[in-house]
Structure formats: structure tokens, C-alpha cells
Design goal:
By secondary structure, this protein is α/β, with parallel strands linked by helices. The protein folds into 2 domains: 417 residues, no CATH class; 52 residues, no CATH class. The protein contains 16 helices and 14 strands. The chain has a 7-stranded mixed β-sheet, covered by helices on one side. Strand 5 and strand 6 form a beta hairpin. It is globular. It starts with 9 loop residues before the first strand and ends with a helix. The mean pLDDT is 87.
Amino acid sequence: MAVDFTYADHTVILSDLHLSDAEPPHPGNPLWKRYKRPKHFIDKEFRDFLTFLSEETSGATEIVLNGDIFDFDSVMVNPEEKGMKISWLEKKRGLFAEEKKSIFKMSTILKDHWIWIESLGDFVRKGNRVVFVIGNHDMEVHWPGVQKIIVDAMKIPDSMRNSVRFCEWFYVSNKDTLIEHGNQYDAYCTCSNPIHPLVRKGGRYFVRLPFGNLAGKFMLNGMGLFNPHVDSSYIKSNLTDYLVFFYKYLVRVQPLIMFTWFWGAAVTLFYSIGEGLLPAVRDPLKLEKRLSEIATKANSSVSTLHSLRALHVHPAIFNPIRIARELWLDRAILLGFAFLLSFWIFSTVNLFAKVSMLWWAIPLALFLPALLFYARSVESEVYKVQTTALKRVNVISKITGLKRVVFGHTHRERHILLDGVEVLNTGTWSPAFHDVECTQPFGRKCFAWIKKEENSSERVAELYEWNKGKAFPIPRQDRVDLATLEMLAKNRT
């Protein structure tokens, strides 16, 4: 049965749930990935939220799950199936993005979050629609087999399966709102080619993952006290913050963290460059059909699709120095060079006059101030890219003819009027905490609700916080400029 996705009385949008597998308890290390424990799951809150929507809405209602609903990169469970070849690196840091392995990861997530997926199925059975917009952490949803697993797990009748839709990176709701995750404006998390997301390596096909995903997989999966849902837990503003965190927690839990970080960062650098340079898998004979399918699912046109695609930023993986700097590998290399150069100077002097080993530290002491000055001068660009999407809002509006845009990705909720365009960000529902003990929750669980006003044909949008079974409206800010937003982006807490 055909379902009309072009019209909606109510559109509810939320993003960045980051559903992943449940972390088992670690008796000898109770802090290890505590944020992934089942007691922190948002499943029951989500079920109550959908019940609330069902009671408060009528007519054509759609819920748009706007990217990073699932977090494939954090799944660390390995299959027991013998026929699946798993490398040493996959056993240590999680499975690669092949279809069979992505299906396994999706099945694992849904098994641990059965309340969440069953409540979503109930929502569809009540006559509502669900739209998945693919983000950077759930790019493996591009696989048809993964999409089938999701719909199957909802346990909805065959006649209702068309009520669930998957969109590559954007969706136009009711001809009045553009909805997209927003990672396409983040050089570290952009999908290089959302039209053709696959690459081929050694006769096998993979979803090409962005640099940010690979950093999470190869680095953060081995650093269990760093919460990937709160970037301030692993991106510190200066060396002092890292040292305080190290001596407060890591020296007891993971004293060899520097080794784990270094080899993880090195793997991230080389893997992201190697995979990033591969050509996208595409069939030129099916290109027009592919473009038409993407545009149709997004309630858009092929010409609009091309124009929006042209706004996407250039992936950071094409600038190795840039990503090495983001990984702190540049400072590690310079420090290693300083040690080697100091040892070379000491060895040369020692050939002509026997000197104490303490003299080896003199050249190193001369190099360190310059190295520390350089390290303090380098700022992470992660916060700068958070406003990149906002800088493109005016052009997005002109391309689409729409005056409302909804993003996710940055985990920072907001509702603003920027250059005459209404901009909303639904923040995150992920289990985020200020502390590794997971006692101080971070952020608010927010959603956008677009609905018709009484006695009006136009729809209005509001941002709400979902808290203790109730929805609390968040006022819109009309006087906002980009300079202020850039300053706020640096405030990670």
C-alpha cells in the first residue's frame, strides 16, 4: 500500500541516540565504559515519549530519526559464527563495515535495545510513519540488509512496511522543512560520497567511514574512560587538562594509555587515508535511477539534490597534516624528534669528551619550550566545524526555497532565527555525563515538534525538552549572530 510522505500534520524530530551494544560489567575495572551499561539506556524514556506523541497527535504524523540513531562504531561484540573472517584489529576495535558484519552489529544493537525497537513498531502500527536520516555513526544503515533487519525487528505487518523510510542524508517534510543530520558540513565526519557510499578493497565491499568514526573505533574503543558522546572527555583544551585526568583516573585504570593512544592514532591516520583515497563504487548505467530514488525518498528533486551536495565540505582525510594535528600525532612526532636529536648531540659530544648522561637532557631542555609553545598554539578544529552548517543556512534556504532547517550532529540543542531562517538542532539523547563515574548527566533530551496552528494552514516549530515523562518548551532565540555561536561552540560543558 502506497504511503504519502509528502504531507504531515505533525513532524517530530530527534537525533543522536547513539544506541549501541550493552557493556558487560568489569569487576576489576568498574569505570570501564560505564556509560554503556544498560541502566543508562534511554529505551524506556523513548517508549514513554512515543506513548505521549500518540496521545497528543492525530492525523498524519511522522517521526524523523535524524542521524546517529545507532552507533555501529562502538559495538565491540564479535560473532561466534565460524564462517565470518575477523582480523586481529577487528577483535580489538570492532568489526569493519562490510554488509554481513554490519547486519551482525545491527542485530546485536536491536537485541540489547528490544524495548526501543518494539515501541517504534507499536508507533507504526498505530498508523504513523518513521523516517531514518542516515548520519555519520550509523552510515552502515546504507546496507539494504541492515535496513531489512530494522524493519523486521519492528514486527509490523507487511502492509505497513512502506511506512518506514530510509534517507541518504536529508529529508524535506511537508514542503516546509529541510531535515538533515549535519555531518556533511563537518570535514572530520562527512560522508565522502553519500550517493555512492561504498568502496571496494581486495574484492570485498565496505561502507567508507569518515575520519571521525575511525578515530572513535580505533582510539576511543580502547580508551574506556573517555565517553565518545561528550567530546570534552577526549578533546582537552590544553596539556594540563590531560595530565590532571591521567593522574586522577588513568594511572590506576590504564597506565599504558599513551601507548594505546599512539598506536590507535597511527592506525586511524593510515586507515582513513588509505580508505579515503579509494574510488567510490558506482554503476554509471544506474546513476540516474540512483539519483531519482534518493530525491524521491527525500521528497525533493534531483536538481536540489545536486545543489545541496555541492555545499558539502571537503573531507579532512585529504589533508594528512590536518588530521595528524587533530590526533596529536604531530606533537608526538616532534617530541620523538627532540629526544632523538638530543641523544645524537650527546653521542657526538661523548666521542670527544666523556660526559655524564645528564648532559643528554640539556639539549632536550632547550627544545621543550619551543615544543610546548607549539603545542599550546594548536587548537582543535572540532569546535570550529560546529558552526560550518550554520554558515550555509542562508544558501540552503535559497536552494530549497524553505525557511526552516533542522540539524543534529553537534549534540547542542538550539532554536534560533538566523538571517531570516529558522534553525533548530535537537541535541542528543545519548548517555552523556560530565564524569567517568556517570553520576553527573550532561545535556538535555530534546526534540523538535512541527505542527499546524489553530485556524491556520501553516505549521510552526517548537523545540522541547523531554524530562520525566513531560515535554517542556524551549524558547526560540531571535537575536543570534555567528560570532556568538562560534564562541558558544568552544564551551564544551
